[in-house]
Specification:
single chain; mainly alpha; two-stranded antiparallel ribbon; 10 helices; 64% helix
């Protein structure tokens, strides 16, 4: 399972560390067919790609939502073949959006374990600035749904100021979109509908709206980048 631009480079130990799980868990998922087999390299060492890592993150998220392994297997079988790591990350974001936020209090040691790598004080401060965690002491309050995104952003070669400015832009437009969609939802159900009816409609619409927003944003960003590169 590879991409056009990146060959599998992770050993099973590295994959497990990056995903915040044990090697035993990786092998168990592989044995169940939830993870595709690795690419066998020199010395018969299995090598895993970013797609393996993204699929593993999706499996963990589905488990977090309370799905059984059998249900997860059926869910993965329904996904289109050949999804990239980015596609899987988008799908995981949609799945994660179904659950309410549930911040946890964790030690710095546990935070590093879930992150899959040691964290410097600068890393912790940047995660706090991105609201992935609250506080920089020990323990911290962690938003589990944001951790993987935060870890990926740690490696983005961009100044903290630009990163936080981008975050504010996204939050501003996300709130505006949420207000407009909420207004449309209220108009659709009418004032006479019960609270239960409104909650039921919201539960059905939530994952669809998130997927639509992600898809629209991806396409818009791709168009903007194409225009930018064309002008350069």
């Amino acid at each position: 399972m590879t991409t056009d631009t990146e060959e599998p480079t992770l050993t099973v130990d590295e994959l497990a560390a990056r995903a915040g799980v044990t090697v035993r868990t990786v092998r168990f998922y592989s044995a169940r067919g939830l993870l595709p087999p690795p690419v066998i390299g020199p010395r018969r060492v299995g090598r895993y790609s970013q797609e393996h890592l993204a699929r593993l993150a999706l499996i963990e998220e589905l488990q977090h939502q309370g799905m059984t392994l059998a249900a997860i297997e059926r869910h993965l079988m329904q996904l289109p073949p050949g999804l990239s790591a980015r596609d899987l990350a988008v799908h995981r974001a949609v799945v994660a959006s179904w659950a309410p936020d549930a911040p946890e209090e964790v030690t710095r040691e546990e935070l590093a374990r879930r992150a899959g790598r040691p964290l410097t004080d600068a890393d912790v401060e940047r995660l706090a600035a991105m609201s992935v965690i609250e506080g920089t002491g020990d323990p911290v309050r962690l938003d589990p749904g944001l951790l993987r995104l935060g870890m990926e952003l740690l490696d983005v070669p961009i100044a903290d100021e630009a990163l936080l400015a981008a975050r504010e832009v996204l939050l501003e437009h996300a709130r505006a979109a949420a207000r407009e969609l909420s207004r449309l939802l209220r108009d659709a159900v009418g004032e006479q509908e019960s609270v239960a009816a409104v909650k039921s409609l919201s539960a059905h619409m939530h994952p669809l709206v998130v997927q639509a927003l992600l898809t629209a944003f991806q396409r818009s960003l791709k168009d903007e980048l194409r225009e930018w590169l064309k002008e350069s």
